[in-house]
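Please go through the protein record below and explain what the tokens say about the fold. Record follows.
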Amino acid sequence: MAGPEMGTSVARSFAVLALLCLLVPCHGKLSTKFYAKSCPSVATIVRSVMAQAVAKEPRMGASIIRLFFHDCFVNGCDASILLDDTPTFTGEKNAGANVNSVRGYEVIDAIKTQVEAACTGIVSCADIVALASRDAVNLLGGPTWNVQLGRKDSRTASQSAANANLPGPGSSAASLVSAFAAKGLSARDMTALSGAHTVGRARCVFFRGRIYGETNINATFAAARQRTCPQQSGGAGDGNLAPFDDQTPDAFDNAYYRNLVAQRGLLHSDQELFNGGPVDALVRKYSGNAGMFATDFAKAMVRMGGLMPAAGTPTEVRLNCRKVN
């Protein structure tokens, strides 16, 4: 039978835990089985809607992967990026790296509608984005992995944090390593996650400087990109799209790294990964070993998916991903 000393000890332990939760994030542990009983059909629903979306437009797979990255890198994987602006609230959708760029919100809405019909008020939008990004990779021919679940949706968002935290297309290798390190992610994680640029498209405005002004670029590749991206800025051409990987633009493979070795990186920040810097050797390894890249990418996605909002952040399970309850 417990004596008074044990009762005092337990009380003291709870007090210490409460204090720690004020100092560091105290979140429920993520689990691959989080919805096993409360919403066992969630993964099937997400996969079904994603399969339809990617079949209709393969580029959407890349867009959903990017949506996950842009969510997680700003105050954790909390679906803050999904919140619409209101007259009294400024979200992250119009941050510099997101406006007229991040897309796929309507796909997440479609998934959420079906999930809510099956399990009302159970599954967070943040977990839906995490599952959808895994399925996007796999549907485009990439690896799959078990997604850790149990995130909550933030009731807040920060446009200023989005502007400050998301690496831009002009980033150097050193600044990329530093930005990822600030999130607890290694240079290897950064290099693997950058391989998501094996799919997707970029707008001319983001690679114009590289194809007209840089020398570490394959001349044939630069000329091909110049045909659809005029040198003069500010015109209609700014929005013209080009594939990150012009070899297999909609296949999730390791061609991105082969392109970098051949100086065919689309963005400055892409080519920086193979330009006499700290991750050149790893890029060369990935370029010749698709299995190594796929394994490292999956591990890095799980690690990035573990980024949580700070302690004290108000959270909930949103019923509509675009607005707080």
About this structure: The chain is about 50% helix and 5% strand. The two ends are 46 Å apart (CA to CA). Residues 41-166+305-316 form a domain with the Peroxidase; domain 1 fold (CATH 1.10.520.10). The first helix runs from residue 4 to 23.
